[in-house]
Design goal:
Elements (H helix, E strand, L loop, with lengths): L4 H30 L3 H27 L19 H28 L6 H28 L3 H12 L6
Helix pairs in contact: 1-2, 1-3, 2-5, 3-4, 4-5
C-alpha cells in the first residue's frame, strides 16, 4: 500500500520532530544535572528514550509501507533556564508541538483516505494526552514547591524513581 506523497512528507517531518524532541529532552536533562537535580534529569533522559522510540515507530511504519525515510536537520535546543519549573514548561511546550503535529498528520491521513495510518495515529493521539497530562502535573507540583528545598528534593527523588515505560 503506497503512501500518498504529501503524507509521506508529513511522516518524514514527524520522524524528525520526534528525534528533535528526544534531543530537546537531553538538553533539559543536562541543565537539570548541572543544577543538582539528578532525579529530574533521569526523568528527562527517560523521556528522551521514549521520544526516540516514537521516532523509530514512525520510521518503521514508513519503511513497512514501502516508502523512503528522509531525515531532516535537528536544530540545537534551548539549554538556558532559570529553574526546574521553566525546564518543565519547556518540556510541555515541546509536547504540545508534537501533539499539534500528530493531529495534523491524522487529518492528512483522513483526507487522503489512508486507513492504514489510523491505528498508528490513534495510539499516538492517546499517548500525547498522557504525555501532556504528566508534564502538566509535574509543573503544578513544582509551582507549589518552588522555593521550598525539602519539597523540591522530594519531587526530584520521586521523578528519579520512575521506571522506563512507566
Amino acid at each position: 500500500m503506497v503512501l500518498d506523497g504529501s503524507l509521506l512528507d508529513a511522516y518524514n517531518a514527524q520522524i524528525t520532530l520526534e528525534f528533535a524532541s528526544a534531543h530537546q529532552y537531553l538538553a533539559l536533562a543536562a541543565w537539570l544535572e548541572d543544577h543538582s537535580y539528578p532525579g529530574m534529569a533521569r526523568w528527562m533522559q527517560q523521556q528522551a528514550e521514549e521520544e526516540r522510540a516514537h521516532g523509530m515507530r514512525f520510521y518503521q511504519f514508513v519503511l513497512d509501507r514501502d516508502a523512503s525515510v528522509t531525515l531532516g536537520a535537528i536544530e540545537a535546543p534551548d539549554s538556558s533556564f532559570d529553574s526546574p519549573l521553566e525546564v518543565f514548561r519547556q518540556a510541555l511546550h515541546g509536547e504540545q508541538r508534537v501533539t499539534a503535529s500528530i493531529n495534523d498528520l491524522y487529518g492528512q491521513a483522513v483526507a487522503v483516505s489512508d486507513y492504514a495510518s489510523i491505528p498508528l495515529l490513534d495510539w499516538f493521539v492517546n499517548e500525547q494526552v498522557e504525555e501532556e497530562s504528566t508534564v502538566k502535573q509535574i509543573i503544578d507540583d513544582l509551582g507549589r514547591a518552588e522555593g521550598q528545598g525539602h519539597a523540591m528534593l522530594m519531587i526530584d527523588r520521586e521523578l528519579g524513581a520512575r521506571q522506563i515505560g512507566a
